From TrEMBL:
GO terms for molecular function: G protein-coupled receptor activity. One of its GO terms (cellular component) is plasma membrane. Residues 49-300 form the G-protein coupled receptors family 1 profile domain. Belongs to the G-protein coupled receptor 1 family. GO terms for biological process: phospholipase C-activating G protein-coupled receptor signaling pathway; positive regulation of Rho protein signal transduction. Keywords: Cell membrane, G-protein coupled receptor, Glycoprotein, Membrane, Receptor, Transducer, Transmembrane, Transmembrane helix. It is a multi-pass membrane protein. This is P2Y receptor family member 8.
Length: 318
């Protein structure tokens, strides 16, 4: 049995349904079930990994350094995603039919994208903290001791992310398709969600360049600089941990974040200007973007000696 998946459509839709304005793509049932199963697996790993991580970070690590505060912030966004994912699973299993109302659709969509972009910005912040601590240890020694710096940074991350994603907060992201007796959630977008093509370009620029590409470049620079510094002036063990941490972070960017942001840009340009779509690939990339919430505990393990020790104690490994 074929399942109809509805692509992100940038037509000038009104509140009255017009079938000719909706571009439908046929996805086989196996694709829908595969995505659902992937979300289920991600949800389980997310909660199994991040609940103990949060407990260790909150109650077993001391003092609460700048890096630990960033890790707590990252874990909070991951747990929020873990709570929201069952809604996405139900949406997939119901055949792209959203039954939870417009407000919950906005909530789920915002959780997906705030998790992605807050994770990206937090990883950038952790990389900067390690860069300052290893490459510039004396110049920024006092600033790195201030917890208020980390808290303020987390607040600024949320302000920036929510400012870029503001259109998603003020738009009804559900759309009824009577022809198929379904209501979609963030699968049919109205072109007039933003007032002009220039506004759409600014929206996509904010997501892809400001919230992804720029942090990716900063993070890469910081970890490459750290590895170069440790290669010249450090013990083999410390260098090995730094290389592993950099590898995991870059893996998260390449595997989880890069495909989704590239396909978001490609898909949006194709829809806006050429009436074409790479929607199925985009949906799969959105699924893989959630994998970051499963990999983040590995980042904590490599980034914090205190976290490593407390986790080993929890698992009775020492």
């Amino acid at each position: 049995m074929d399942i109809w998946a509805i692509s992100l459509n940038f037509s000038t839709l009104t509140s009255t349904y017009k079938a000719e304005h909706v571009d439908l793509h046929v996805d086989d049932e196996n694709t829908r079930i595969t995505i659902s199963v992937l979300y289920m697996v991600i949800t389980v790993i997310n909660l199994v990994g991040n609940v103990p991580s949060m407990w260790i970070l909150l109650f077993r690590t001391s003092p609460k350094t700048v890096s630990i505060i960033f890790m707590i912030h990252l874990t909070l966004t991951d747990l929020a995603l873990g709570v929201a994912l069952p809604l996405q699973i139900a949406y997939q299993l119901y055949g792209y039919h959203w039954t939870f109302g417009s407000g919950m659709c906005r909530f789920m969509t915002l959780v997906f994208y705030t998790n992605m972009y807050c994770s990206i910005l937090t990883m950038m912040a952790i990389s900067i903290d390690r860069y300052l601590g290893i490459v510039k240890p004396m110049r920024f020694k006092q600033a790195r001791k201030k917890k208020s710096t980390a808290v303020l940074s987390c607040i600024l991350m949320w302000v920036l992310v929510l400012a870029v994603l503001y259109p998603l907060m003020t738009t009804d992201l559900t759309f009824e398709v009577p022809q198929y007796e379904i209501t979609t959630c963030f699968d049919v977008l109205k072109k007039n969600m933003l007032p002009s093509t220039e506004a759409w370009a600014a929206f996509l620029f904010g997501m892809v360049v400001i919230l992804f590409l720029f942090p990716f470049c900063i993070t890469t620079f910081c970890y490459v600089s750290v590895i170069r510094k440790l290669t010249r002036h450090s013990r083999t063990g410390q260098k090995r941990i730094a290389v592993r941490l950099a590898s995991v972070v870059l893996l998260v960017f390449i595997l989880c974040f890069t495909p989704n942001n590239v396909l978001l840009l490609v898909h949006s340009v194709l829809r806006l200007f050429y009436g074409q779509s790479v929607y199925t690939a985009y949906k799969l990339s959105l699924c893989f973007s959630c994998l970051n919430s499963c990999l983040d505990p590995f980042i904590y393990y490599l980034a914090s000696r205190d976290f490593r020790q407390k986790l080993r104690q929890l698992l009775n490994l020492q």
